[in-house]
Amino acid sequence: MMNNIGLLARIEAKPEYADDIARMLTEAVHLAEEEKRTVTWFAFREDATTFGVFDTFEDDEDRTEHLRGRIAAALMGAADTMLASAPDIRPVDLLAVKLP
Predict the structure, then answer these.
(1) pLDDT reading at 63 higher than 60
(2) Read out DSSP for the chain?
(3) Model pLDDT, residue 98
């Protein structure tokens, strides 16, 4: 199973909602586990208000399907109230991968 494409999302929370975003991302792992077409999924925190998600897929169809899923919908639903700006979501091509 080759996961050669991904998404990198940067999420900037309003300070008063940072804990809510952290909780939302922590709980979203269960949604990611239900997505059979998402190969890997990572949520991370850079600093007090900056978060990110990195995930990988086998092909562009799988990546597009993920963007139509429940995690993306939850993130976009939070954008107006809890985020300082719209999420910066970028497709990426993986050059090399090391997995256990």
Answers:
(1) yes
(2) ----EEEEEEEEB-GGGHHHHHHHHHHHHHHHHH-TTEEEEEEEE-SSSEEEEEEEESSHHHHHHHHTSHHHHHHHHHHHHHBSS--EEEEEE-S-----
(3) 87
